[in-house]
Structure formats: structure tokens, C-alpha cells
Design a protein that fits this description.
Layout lengths: L2 E6 L5 H13 L3 E6 L9 H8 L3 E2 L5 H4 L3 H8 L2 E7 L1 H9 L5 H8 L4 E5 L3 H5 L1 H12 L3 E2 L3 E4 L5 E5 L3 H14 L9 E4 L17 E6 L4 E2 L5 E2 L6 H12 L3 E6 L10 E5 L3 H11 L4 E4 L6 E3 L18 E3 L3 H7 L6 E8 L3 H12 L3 E6 L9 E2 L1 E5 L2 E4 L3 E2 H15 L1
Parallel strand pairs: 1-2, 1-4, 2-3, 4-5, 5-6, 10-13, 10-15, 13-14, 15-18, 18-19
Antiparallel strand pairs: 7-8, 9-14, 11-12, 16-17, 19-21, 20-23, 21-22
Helix pairs in contact: 1-2, 1-9, 4-6, 5-8, 10-14
The structure holds flavin mononucleotide.
Flavin mononucleotide binds next to helix 5.
Length: 413
């Protein structure tokens, strides 16, 4: 039986943690709860204990629990630590590594994955400090769900509502399906159920199928070695997630990365450029394609045996060109209505991207300068090259680039 440690923070949405416990139990997941001092203003330990049928922990300095270093044990015995609602305060403490109560000490002491479902007033969510904390935590490997958008208890409107308990449960299950096993082997397919019901109205991608590629490719040299690149897959995964959040059916063809599948996304794991080309062709038809993957240009005419040092001259690697997936897709009779390519450049970024758009037959090219820390980093400054010209976007967290691009795609389709 899978176990979660649920940390309930001090927000209005704490009552939804009760429903989350009920749903987790129904799904066969054992739940132990930690209720912060803030959280106790909104729900009682008694309610959580009754629903979880487990002791509820509230105090770090509890002599009885600490007789056996209870806080360390508690942080390690679950398969996953879930923070819901994750208040602005909890996110800030987590990002800073503060451990001044039971919840934050557990979060610092745990060796298990952490998933946080934030809930707060829209201004708090959009505050630079919270944006910074969320980016830091995502960079640290914490899964942070996007809050829902809508009317809030405080009377304001916007993103900040706790995702529905059903969506949090799906994200938990999805994390278990996608985690760790992220290193690809040819074409493994995993489908993550939708995180949130699709938004309605303008910008909605409901009914659209969008193909996204992400990550690097691995080109084998021999049975144990390969040529790769530094792509982390973060930008492509963020785009796949943002498109799914707008209601699209998303197929993500992914090179070998260690990221969890974004909620609502069907992921096809591939290894080589040729595998990726095949998977892209099989995923058609699509209404749009966003080709973010850093596809290797060449493959090695692979040695059947492991290359060995035999005292003579070093071995020579014979390289052959890989398929040009973007150009093939753009020229295909089953061409998606909107084809978006990515250009990773180190010089004359915009000029090369403008030329690439024409050369490859893409509708848009998203150009980024990868001479800095973009590959593997958390932020990206991009130039969007379309038939109408070039837009220069300010440096943004990759999640924000993804959201903005997804909205542009929704407007275009
Ligand atoms: C009525 C009320 C509602 C609140 N709702 C939220 C909320 O939804 N999200 C949030 O981040 N903080 C909210 N706060 C502020 C937190 O309760 C406060 O920052 C607290 O220190 C958080 O405690 P925690 O770290 O235990 O979560 C609210 C405060 C009050 C008085």
C-alpha cells in the first residue's frame, strides 16, 4: 500500500484536505497528516484523524513522538510528502530551507519526493517573492501544481485556488507512474490523467490534439556508450503541461529525461532521433506540433561490440545524418495546422531563427540563446519568429514561457 504524508497549511482551502484524505483512502493510499499551527485555525486535528484513521501530528517538540526521533521517521516512512494547501508562508520556508516547526522540519529532513498544491490570494500567488520561491522549489525538484483560476474566498478573481482534490489525487498517482522511471527505453507510453478540468471560453484548447517533443536524444556509440546533449526537457515538459492545462489532448514524445509526466499528458519515451521521428509520425494527425526536443544531428554507425582500448590508435566514429524531424513534419501531407520549431543558437540568434523558419517550413520558430545557462536552467529569454515578424520576450521562468506560448497557440488555432 502506498503512503503519503499530508501536510495541511493555514489557508481557507484546508477544508479541501479533508476530501483529499477521503479520496486517497478510497484509492487505497494510506494517509498520515501533519497539521501546522496555521492549519489548526481552519480544520481540527480531530477531523483529520477521523478521516485518515491515523494519529495527526502537530508539534515538533512532542516528547512522546521524539523518544524515537519521530520527526525523522515521519519524514521518511511515506512514499510521498504532499503539502495541501501549500500556503505562501510554507512555500517561502521550503524555498529558504527554514525548519521552525514540525511541517517545515519534516520537509527539510525528508528523502522522499514532495508535491505541493498551492492555494492563496491571487496577489500573493503573483507576488515576485512567491514566483521566486516557486521557481526555486521547482528547480530543487519539488512538484508544484498550478493553482486553479476562479473566484476566491477573498472576493478577488484569478489563479490561486487550490486544485480540486480529485486533481491533486491524479497528480499524486501520476507522479508515482512517471517518477524515477523517467529514463527512457525506446517507446514506453504513459498517460497522465487531466490535472484540472479544461478551462472554457477564449484560449481553450479543448478538442485539439497537440504534439510536443522534448528532451535530448541519445545516439548509441556501442552497447554501453552514447552521444547526448545537455537538454533537460524542462521547457518542453512545461509547454506540454501548459497546453494540457488549457484543455488540449497532448502527446509528448520525450527523449531520455528524469522529469515526471505533466498532468493530462500522454508521454511516449524514445531514445534516438530515428525513434523520435517514428513516434512523431505515429502520433499524427495533430492540430499543432511544438518541436522543442534537442534532436541530435548525427548518429554513429554503431559498433556491434563494446569499443575496447587495445593499445593502438583510438577508434574512429563514423557519423551519418539523422532525420530532420521538423522539416519532415512541415512537409508532410499530414502537416499539423500550426508547426512550431525551436532554435537553440549561440550567436546571431534571431537571424538564424528567421532563416530556419523558412528553411524548415515551420510557421513559428521559438529562438533561444543557449550560450548561457538555458539548457538545464529554470529561465529562458526567447524570440518568437512568425510570418509577421519577431517578438522579443523578456527573460521568464520556463513555466511562464510555456504558459504564454500555450495561450498564443490557443489564439492561433
Ligand atoms: C482567514 C485567513 C485565510 C488565509 N488564507 C490563506 C491562504 O489561502 N493562503 C495563504 O498562503 N495564506 C493564507 N492566510 C495566511 C496564513 O494563514 C498565514 O500566512 C500563516 O502564517 C500560514 O501558516 P502555515 O505556514 O502554517 O501554512 C490566511 C489567513 C487568514 C487569517
Amino acid at each position: 500500500m502506498k503512503k503519503i504524508l499530508l501536510i495541511v497549511g493555514g489557508g481557507i482551502a484546508a477544508y479541501k484536505a479533508c476530501e483529499l484524505i477521503r479520496l486517497c483512502r478510497k484509492a487505497g493510499i494510506e494517509v498520515k497528516c501533519v497539521l501546522t499551527a496555521g492549519g489548526q485555525h481552519f480544520v481540527t486535528p480531530m477531523t483529520l484523524a477521523a478521516l485518515s484513521e491515523n494519529q495527526v501530528y502537530t508539534n515538533l517538540f512532542d516528547l512522546k513522538d521524539e523518544a524515537e526521533m519521530g520527526h525523522i521517521q515521519l519524514s521518511r516512512e511515506a512514499d510521498l510528502v504532499v503539502v495541501a494547501p501549500a500556503t505562501a508562508d510554507l512555500l517561502a520556508k521550503m524555498a529558504a530551507g527554514i525548519a521552525d516547526d514540525l511541517a517545515t522540519t519534516l520537509l527539510l529532513a525528508t528523502d522522499k519526493p514532495v508535491l505541493a498544491a498551492p492555494a492563496m490570494n491571487v496577489r500573493m500567488w503573483q507576488h515576485t517573492a512567491t514566483r521566486r520561491n516557486v521557481a526555486t522549489l521547482r528547480g530543487d525538484g519539488v512538484t508544484i501544481l498550478e493553482p486553479d483560476e476562479g473566484p476566491m474566498a477573498c472576493g478577488e478573481y484569478g489563479p490561486g485556488r487550490l486544485p480540486e482534490p480529485e486533481a491533486i489525487l491524479r497528480a499524486i498517482q501520476n507522479l508515482w507512474e512517471g517518477s524515477g522511471e523517467g529514463v527512457a527505453a525506446h517507446t514506453t507510453v504513459t498517460t497522465a490523467p487531466p490535472l484540472t478540468p479544461p478551462a472554457s471560453g477564449r484560449g481553450t484548447l479543448t478538442g485539439k490534439h497537440i504534439l510536443v517533443t522534448a528532451g535530448p536524444t541519445h545516439e548509441p556509440i556501442d552497447p554501453v556508450r552514447y552521444i547526448a546533449n545537455r537538454s533537460s526537457g524542462k521547457q518542453g515538459y512545461a509547454i506540454a503541461g501548459a497546453l494540457a492545462a488549457l484543455g488540449a489532448r497532448v502527446t509528448l514524445v520525450s527523449g531520455p529525461v528524469t522529469l515526471a509526466t505533466p498532468p493530462g499528458v500522454t508521454r511516449i519515451d524514445v531514445e534516438t532521433a530515428q525513434d523520435m521521428a517514428n513516434a512523431v509520425a505515429q502520433a499524427l494527425p495533430a492540430d499543432a506540433a511544438v518541436m522543442v526536443a534537442a534532436v541530435g544531428d548525427w548518429h554513429v554507425e554503431a559498433a556491434a561490440q563494446k569499443l575496447k582500448k587495445e593499445g593502438g590508435a583510438p577508434p574512429t566514429l563514423h557519423l551519418s545524418e539523422n532525420p530532420d524531424i521538423l522539416a519532415m513534419l512541415a512537409a508532410s501531407p499530414r502537416r499539423p495546422g500550426l508547426v512550431v520549431g525551436f532554435a537553440a543558437e549561440t550567436e546571431q540568434v534571431v537571424d538564424h531563427a528567421v532563416a530556419k523558419r523558412t528553411r524548415k517550413g515551420a510557421d513559428w520558430i521559438v529562438a533561444n540563446d543557449v550560450s548561457g545557462d538555458v539548457m538545464g536552467g529554470e529561465a529562458n529569454a526567447i524570440h518568437l519568429v512568425t510570418a509577421d515578424g519577431v517578438e522579443h520576450w523578456e527573460r521568464l521562468p520556463k513555466q511562464d514561457v510555456a504558459r504564454r506560448l500555450a495561450e498564443r497557440i490557443a489564439d492561433a488555432l
